[in-house]
Amino acid sequence: MPHSLRCVIMRGGTSKAVFLKEADIPADPEARRRLILAVYGSPDRRQIDGLGGADPLTSKLAIIGPPREALPRAAGTHLTYTFGQVEIDHPEVDWRSLCGNISAAVGVFAVYEGMVTPTAPVTVVRAYNTNLDRVLRIEVPVENGRPLEHGDYVVPGVPGSGARIMIDFADTAGGATGRLLPTGRPVDRLEVPGFGPLDVSLVDIGNAHVFLRAHDLGLTGTETAAEIDAKPELRALVERIRGMAAERMGMVADAARAREESPATPLLGMVGPPADYRNALAGGMVTEMEVDLVSRLMFMQQMHKTYAGTSTVCTGVAARLAGTLVHEVTRPHNRAAIRIGHPAGVIEIETEIAPDGTVRRATLGRTARRILEGRVFVPVDWDAVIQKRRTDGHGRG
């Protein structure tokens, strides 16, 4: 008889994830990995035999557990949150990164599950994230003891509107590498094989990122995902750059192993000054006066169709750091919010940097919605099923 376990599917921002309770899955890392792959139907390009959506943005996982009071950083938190990026055609789960979009859904999940006492009009959820050993402060709108899901807040790339959930990522600065600027410099130079010298900015908040000037690669920063993904040589080049950045930041020992050891992070942003471009999802034009900079993001070896939540945080903070390439291309202004032009519209991030470089505030607005609650069934012999998928050629593993 197939094995089953309770699950909740939630949308958070422009991403979607399966939520599982920590107590319902194996504690052993290898057994846990195999079970999760079975839940998602990986490795298989269509993830046809599981809950995965055959896209990096819909092949995400949130494991929720009780607070870990014994950990100093987790003091005063309501829950423990572990994020997993489930590979589609590779039999792996990447635990090195954090998803800002799904973090919004974590707050909503906590209220629904009774992990925090609901307080109107806003319930604050403090979530300890195991991936970065940091705490997220999530503000969830509440009405009649339940999360408020309807509202007029619009997230580009998400149909309709919803109630605005605010997430403060200030505590995640240096979570992956130990410092906001991992090398201590606003600009580093990489000697990229087959390309030559390239200036980059390495910044770590939300997730570790590498930023480069779009025009240094012959781009404008206004390209669509279809245009970038149709250029295999360009994708191979930016993956080499990403790998070298991962090695420079100490995230991997060998740049050539970055794809296998850390496929999701660092993320790579290609930035440029404000410019007009066409909204790839909704149609219509985004004008240069609506944005402070433009950026195109590489995530899981593909171009992101919108813009990741943690990338919004990192880009917004980098735009405030004098000397970085992001600051270089950002329109000067005195507003609290930085407006980032991405393929599906404009996303804003409120940031505040202290004179000593400490991040005081890095707050992102998102929406979230509970889509499904039920039980997911996996074969009793899920390990054998995963091995057969590999040998049949469904995945690359």
Automatic annotation (TrEMBL):
InterPro entries in the cross-refs: PrpF-like (IPR007400)
Key words, A-Z: Isomerase
Coiled-coil regions listed: none
Entry keyword annotation includes Isomerase: yes
Gene Ontology MF terms in the entry: isomerase activity
Keyword check for Magnesium: no
Family per similarity comment: Belongs to the PrpF family.
The protein's name in its UniProt record: 3-methylitaconate isomerase
Organism, scientific name: Dankookia rubra
